[in-house]
Structures are given as C-alpha cells and as structure tokens.
Amino acid sequence: MRTLVDYFTLFVLLFIGTIFAKVISDILAMRRHYNALSTLDEYREDYPKCQTPRGIRCCECKSSSIWQRKLKQAGKAIFECRHCGTELYRR
Ligand SMILES: [Zn+2]
C-alpha cells in the first residue's frame, strides 16, 4: 500500500512540475517575442512613410486602424493592425 502512495505522490509531483515548466516556458517565449518587436521609435525609423500627420499606419496594408493588445505586465502592450493582423510595435 505504501508503494502505491509513493507512486501517486511521484505522479502528482511530476504533474505539478510539468505544468510549472510549461508556464515558465510560455512566459519566456512571450518575453522573447515581445522584445523582438520594434519600439515605436524604431518602427518610425524603419517605416518613415507610415508616420502620417494623423498618426501611425500599418507598414503592410497602410491601414491606420491600430489595435492595442495590453499584456499582463503593467504598461506593456503590443500594437497590431486591425485590418491585416500584423504586429507592428511594442510599448
Ligand atoms: Zn495592416
């Protein structure tokens, strides 16, 4: 009986560890993805024609409809085109 409890405990610990590793992996992947995006200043430098008097527009489809996707970390967001879905820059 004790062996069965030991196996169950081992299974629960492995299960918790797997979930923990997946959560950490997802956080690190999201951080890498976020840091790979341009900042607004970099976006303006890379696509000067997408800076208009009325604001920023998408470099892919020229739409000026920009969607702000807020991240869980305070103040951080990814801006993407509402028309074509291209991720444009980060804040
Ligand atoms: Zn677009």
Q: How would you portray this structure in words?
A:
This protein is α+β, with helices and mostly antiparallel strands. The chain has 2 domains: 1-36; 38-91, no CATH class. The chain is 46% helix and 20% strand. The protein is built from 2 helices and 5 strands; from the N terminus they run ααβββββ. Strand 1 (51-52) and strand 2 (55-56) form a beta hairpin. The longest helix is centred in the first third of the chain and has 35 residues, at 2-36. Zinc ion is lined by residues 58, 60-61, 63, 81, 83-84, 86.
Short description:
By secondary structure, the chain is α+β, with helices and mostly antiparallel strands.
What coarse outline follows from CA principal-axis ratios? rod-shaped
Residue share in β-strands: 15-25%
Number of domains: 2
Which distinct ligands sit in these coordinates? Answer: zinc ion
CA radius of gyration is 21 Å
* Secondary structural class: alpha+beta
Unreliable segments (pLDDT under 50, ≥5 consecutive)? none
The largest sheet is: 3 strands, antiparallel
Question: What layout of secondary structure does this protein have?
Answer:
Layout: H1 2-36, H2 40-46, E1 51-52, E2 55-56, E3 66-70, E4 77-81, E5 87-90
Antiparallel strand pairs: 1-2, 3-4, 4-5
Bound molecules: zinc ion (ZN).
